[in-house]
Amino acid sequence: MLDDEVPADRSSIERVLADCGLLSGAALERARRLETESGERIDRIAAKLGLVSERDIAAADAELMGSPLVAAAEFPAEPVGPERIRRMFLKQARLIPLAESEAALVVAMADPL
Question: What are the residue ranges spanned by the domains of the chain?
Answer without folding.
Answer: 12-65, 72-109
